[in-house]
Amino acid sequence: MRSEADLEPLFAHPSNDADRAVLTRLRQIYEAGGWVLVESAVADLPADLRWLYESDAVTLPQLAAIHKSVGATSAADLAAAVAEHRIGPLADAGPEVEERIRAALPNLRALVPRIALGRAAALAEPFLTALRATPGVAWAEPTGSLRRGEDMVGDIDILAPAADPAPVVDAVARLPQTSRVLYRSERRVYVLSERAQIAVRIPEPAHAGAPQLYLTGSIGHIASLREHAEARGMALLPSGLVAGASTITGPTEDTIYRALGLPCIPVEIRHGDGEVAAAAHGALPTLVTRGDIRGDLHMHSTYSDGRDAVETMVEASRALGYEYIAITDHSQRSAASHNLTVDDVRRQADEIAGLRQRFPTIAILHGCEVDILPDGRLDFVDQVLMRFDVVLASLHDAAGHGPDQLLKRYAAAMKHPLVSIITHPTNRMVPHRRGYDIDYDRLFEIAVETGTIIEVDGAPGHLDLDGALARRAIAAGATLVINSDCHRAELLDRQMGFGVTMARRGWVEPRHVVNTRPLEAVRDAIAAKRAH
Ligand code: DGT
Ligand code: CA
User: Fold this and answer.
1) Considering the domain 217-280 in this protein, what is its CATH number?
2) Which protein residue's CA is at the shortest distance from atom 18 of ligand 1?
3) Which of 17, 74, 95, 497 is the most exposed place for a label (fewest CB within 10 A)?
4) What is the pTM of this model?
5) What residues does the ion ligand 2 have nearby, CB within 5 Å?
């Protein structure tokens, strides 16, 4: 905010139809309480407009003019308006402002704290559920980074096409999860939910395909599609695909892909790094899906830091239709709040033997997640490890080690015949801690050499491997396992879903993933390594 003088030209403009917009609101607030209230009103703008203003690219009157004439409420709208030169002609803006906005756009989100995927999905869920239940809503889906399954999300955007938007806006505003309505117009509503911004757009159902494609992004993917369109004499704009005299929008984005001569590209690989070319050549991979997953080989119980009893985990897993699971509690000296002692191992084995009788339709493997100690040894002696059907090894305590030493510890564990799986290899903590900076290509090589399976861990704090690393792992020839690493029965499905999303982002196919295979194949993989 610069000065009160900023407001004078703003107030000089007639405000007629902008009564729901920034301008009138600011005028009323200013008249009611002066500058301090205006500043707090700016804080209530949709976040991207606030950041644009605070980036100094525009004055308040320019911001109001852009909002009023172009209808921009987000960075995506601003980018679309700049691309279509809709800002330059505005009296309050002008071409130099368009240039300043273009320059500001890439940095607009730089200072904004990103939301971890798990939290973003949880925040969006009640909105999606409510929207899908609202009469007249054709469908409701996230767009942007949340839809693409990025591990960190900037803002939450939802598309909910409906012919009559008014009841939809009302439904969003009335939801108990809505703590404040920041902005509403005919076909948009921005609300705060647990201090995160959620934007819902309500396009006409017949034309929702264009915003669905553009707002899903990524920027790189749209740029690749644009080139593909141009090479075929068409122009892909945010408003649709211009082919000859007609603009193709479509009820969903499939229409636009089809018109471009492409299959619908899976959202998780829309990175702009080769997927459009692959699609054009019929070379898209058949990505692993949640339905391909036959079992979950990493979950915790009350024997360590899980919240639920083994039985509860088994029952929930059976309800999900899994053919097999492994109960894998933390080893004796791990930093978990509660660990599996050597005595517990026998008790747990007995309990699992009983559960196998009671739940004959699901195979229950008795496993553990054993810590890799600072010297590379494991946190149970071999005689104990041998009693498990499957052993997962993880580094929880870096012990102040640098990348080379950490890799050596991993290598020692992978060379151990009883270690079948390395869990969450980077050991990052989303969104707070970066993963280890080790030579992952070497790690994957050792995995291949030793027959060790590498995990894609779907716990929202891990999401590890992420898509990029998963892609490098399969390129190296490593076999992956996708696990939930779940500590509560009701989250088994959701966390497996996140794991599958990460794997899909890495172009992973069912053939790369051990737990898409029948139990016998999983047992064979474990046995083959143990035989060495
Ligand atoms: P985020 O929210 O920072 O995690 O990332 P996205 O991908 O959700 O991006 P967002 O919310 O700014 O905009 C949604 C989509 O709109 C984005 O994936 C592509 C399009 N878009 C946004 N900003 C720009 C831009 O500056 N240039 C272009 N070409 N497209 C944009
Ligand atoms: Ca977004």
Assistant:
1) 3.30.210.10
2) 217
3) 17
4) 0.92
5) 144-145, 154-155, 157
